[in-house]
Structure to design on (235 residues):
């Protein structure tokens, strides 16, 4: 399985960003890291290894992108207004720089996004903010309400990056074409967050799959089982 490290400059972030790429061809899937994780996390915790057969068969090409959580949601040294604004810059980087690059490289109109734990928040939030760019959404052990990270502060940027708030009123024909899988486990402390998100999607008439594993908790062994199963749903 080919592995490639890329570093490139983001104009929206004003800094270099790192990414690990696995595979030579296939449908592009961006993997977001968990809280405090980096580009090598999915590889080091064997999530990529779990998907090796699909990568080597050319079904998918995996792009492990870095986050800037240390400068946004987890930046307790910054005012909440600045934290969420920094995330907006990250969202612009994804939508206006990263995704167009992957569209050109892989010759697709839309991409897939995935993530475990806090990476699942990133994946779902990006997918529903930019449904015209995402065809497949896979979350594993995620929670989706971001308000705990802004100390009671609220503005439009918080609202439009907090899926339980903005999704009930969001409209897009692309929602109906998205392959959505919400993965959790019986003893995952984020399980209720997935039930809540499932209720929101049901009320909007958006098709999704809620996958509750009858074993395990909020940890990598469960996510390693989920990931290749979810990737295999990409046609």
């Amino acid at each position: 399985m080919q592995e490639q490290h890329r570093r490139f400059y983001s104009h929206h972030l004003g800094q270099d960003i790192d990414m690990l790429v696995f595979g030579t061809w296939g449908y592009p899937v961006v993997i977001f890291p968990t809280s405090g994780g980096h580009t090598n996390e999915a590889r080091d915790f064997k999530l990529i290894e779990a998907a090796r057969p699909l990568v080597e068969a050319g079904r998918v090409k995996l792009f492990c992108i870095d986050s800037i959580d240390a400068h946004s949601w987890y930046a307790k040294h910054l005012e909440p207004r600045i934290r969420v604004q920094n995330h907006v810059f990250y969202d612009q980087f994804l939508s206006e720089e990263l995704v167009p690059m992957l569209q050109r490289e892989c010759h697709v109109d839309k991409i897939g996004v995935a993530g475990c734990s806090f990476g699942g928040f990133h994946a779902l939030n990006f997918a529903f903010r930019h449904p015209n760019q995402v065809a497949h959404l896979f979350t594993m052990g995620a929670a989706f309400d971001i308000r705990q990270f802004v100390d009671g502060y609220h503005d439009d940027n918080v609202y439009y990056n907090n899926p339980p708030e903005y999704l009930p009123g969001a409209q897009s024909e692309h929602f109906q074409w998205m392959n959505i899988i919400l993965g959790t486990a019986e003893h995952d402390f984020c399980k209720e967050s997935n039930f809540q998100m499932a209720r929101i999607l049901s009320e909007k008439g958006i098709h999704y799959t809620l996958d509750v594993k009858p074993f395990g908790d909020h940890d990598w062994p469960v996510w390693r089982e989920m990931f290749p199963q979810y990737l295999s749903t990409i046609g």
In short: Residues 80-106 form the longest helix (27 residues). The chain has nine helices and eight strands.
